[in-house]
TrEMBL record:
It comes from Paenibacillus borealis. CDD domains: CAP_ED (cd00038). It holds the Pfam family HTH_Crp_2. PANTHER family: CRP FAMILY TRANSCRIPTIONAL REGULATORY PROTEIN (PTHR24567), HTH-TYPE TRANSCRIPTIONAL REGULATOR ARCR (PTHR24567:SF74). Transmembrane segments: none annotated. Keywords: Activator, DNA-binding, Transcription, Transcription regulation. Residues 147-220 form the HTH crp-type domain. Residues 17-116 form the Cyclic nucleotide-binding domain. This is Regulatory protein. PROSITE patterns: CNMP_BINDING_3, HTH_CRP_2. SMART domains: cNMP, HTH_CRP.
Length: 238
């Protein structure tokens, strides 16, 4: 019998904007359809735009000289993507790849500067958005550096549950098919080591698979392994 899961409410990273200030952003956007497999920007491109995802998904990646890819963030509808540095001509440190056909709103730097200069309340909301990005980066590197690969994997599973989770009692279904290769790229590990760690978590009855998707059965065990600091969901997300 198929279990019934309730969707965990997801929040985009633009919830820090008031309705009025978000509408100001919407007015400045130029809509664009972006096909799957294309890129919003590449590492090294000038960061003169922000992108608001109205529909679809985008992943932010960093590549090494050896060609190894590290997935840093996964963005979805309601998220704004880009380098949060409106007053300096900087270059993107990451690549943004579209992983589902997406509808995005493009916000030009000059339009963003006008909003910041004209509306002090918008400037405050934009600073909050920048702060969320800063905390996301801090917690991501904490995951990767502090508690080894098992801690990084458990934290990533928790983040996936907060982002794509559907809940049934104590179980959380991650309602996106995430491959072992994806997980290895998210934590900077080999696919073989991810296979071993997931097998160990399954033996401990912390996770299982349902129709090819991961189900978190013991959230407390995952939190204990990664020394979870119980960050709010807008920070503890993929």
């Amino acid at each position: 019998m198929k279990e019934h899961y309730n969707v965990i409410e997801a929040h985009g990273n633009t919830n820090c904007f008031s309705e009025q200030n978000f509408n100001r952003l919407l007015v400045t956007m130029k809509e664009r359809m972006v096909p799957e497999g294309s890129h919003l920007f590449w590492e090294g491109d000038y960061s003169d735009k922000l992108f608001y995802i109205k529909r679809g998904r985008v992943k932010l990646t960093k590549s090494t000289d050896e060609g190894k890819e590290l997935i840093l963030y996964m963005y979805q509808a309601g998220d704004m993507v880009g380098q949060a540095d409106p007053f300096f001509s900087t270059k993107h440190s990451f690549t943004a790849e579209v992983i589902e056909e997406s509808e995005v709103g493009v916000i030009e730097q000059k339009d963003l500067e006008i909003l910041i200069c004209q509306h002090c309340d918008f400037a405050i909301d934009f600073m909050k958005w920048m702060g969320i990005h800063h905390r996301l980066t801090q917690t991501k590197f904490r995951d990767l550096m502090m508690y080894g690969k098992p801690g990084a994997l458990c934290s990533t599973l928790i983040r996936l549950g907060n982002t794509y989770g559907e809940k049934n009692g104590d179980n959380i279904l991650i309602n996106k098919k995430i491959t072992h290769t994806d997980l290895s790229n998210m934590i900077g590990a080999t696919r073989e080591s991810v296979n071993r760690m997931l097998s160990d978590l399954r033996k401990k009855d912390a996770v299982e698979y349902e129709n090819g998707m991961i189900v978190i059965k013991d959230l407390g065990m995952l939190q204990e392994i990664c020394h979870c600091e119980l960050c709010p969901n807008e920070i503890c997300r993929i």
